[in-house]
Amino acid sequence: MTKRTAEILKRLDETYGTEYICYLNHETPWQLLIAVILSAQCTDARVNIVTETLFKKYDTLEKFANADLAELEEDIRSTGFYHNKAKNIISCARTLVQEYHGEVPSTLEELTSLAGVGRKTANVIRGNIYHDPSIVVDTHVKRISKRLGFTKEDDPVKVEYDLMKVLPKDHWILYNIQIITFGRNICFARGPKCSECFLQDLCKAEDKRK
DNA sequence: CTCCCGATAT
DNA sequence: ATATCAGGAG
């Protein structure tokens, strides 16, 4: 790890702490799984509004497994992509009930075999639930990792491999959590607040704002 | 590569 | 009007 990388991680730790916080409200692993499926191209704030009532109406995995498709579509409509998400959630819930005794699996292979669960969602579960060192590459991580000069890739999987080489393993999970906060507060996709940024002197972004 | 798609900020 | 939001599947 370079001195510069170490300094960036140190400042992220100092600014945002080292706790594994989660922006998607949930009480169980399967609730987090469904929340992450819902979060595709949708703000976590919106997902939390939806799951607030959703998890009371469907309070077990079995209820999601036996849900009426059209009704579930309406229940999650405001998160967007609701046809696909509803179909995937029902299929995913059925697989968990039938093949996994209602438990959420912990390996990348098992997780990504579930409907609606791709690499990003699987890594959120691995990190947040099982504390398995895993790097989540979402829209924030991709954008900010490029600005910080940790990668030049556009493909999320290539970004993930680049970050594995750059970041120490004990920061893999934390990096994603801190970067989401950073992306929400300072390093926006549009018009980042570079003048107020605590990483400004270390940043290699070409789209810096004055 | 394209499609899925509503809510919000700019 | 357009960009963006904790992406995934065909």
Automatic annotation (TrEMBL):
UniProt domain HhH-GPD: residue ranges: 38-185
GO MF annotation terms: endonuclease activity
InterPro entries reported for this sequence: DNA_glycosylase, Endonuclease3_FeS-loop_motif, HhH-GPD_domain, HhH_base_excis_C, HhH_motif, Nth
Gene3D superfamilies hit by this protein: Helix-hairpin-Helix base-excision DNA repair enzymes (C-terminal), Hypothetical protein, domain 2
Iron is among the record's keywords: yes
EC number in record: 4.2.99.18
Enzyme class: lyase
Reactions mediated catalytically: 2'-deoxyribonucleotide-(2'-deoxyribose 5'-phosphate)-2'-deoxyribonucleotide-DNA = a 3'-end 2'-deoxyribonucleotide-(2,3-dehydro-2,3-deoxyribose 5'-phosphate)-DNA + a 5'-end 5'-phospho-2'-deoxyribonucleoside-DNA + H(+)
SMART domains reported in the protein's UniProt record: ENDO3c, FES
Record key words, sorted: 4Fe-4S, DNA damage, DNA repair, DNA-binding, Endonuclease, Glycosidase, Hydrolase, Iron, Iron-sulfur, Lyase, Metal-binding, Nuclease
Ranges in a coiled coil: none
Domain of life according to the entry: Bacteria
Cofactor binding: number and manner: Binds 1 [4Fe-4S] cluster.
PANTHER family in UniProt: A/G-SPECIFIC ADENINE GLYCOSYLASE/ENDONUCLEASE III (PTHR10359), ENDONUCLEASE III (PTHR10359:SF18)
Entry's family note: Belongs to the Nth/MutY family.
Descriptive protein name: Endonuclease III
Gene symbol of the encoding locus: nth
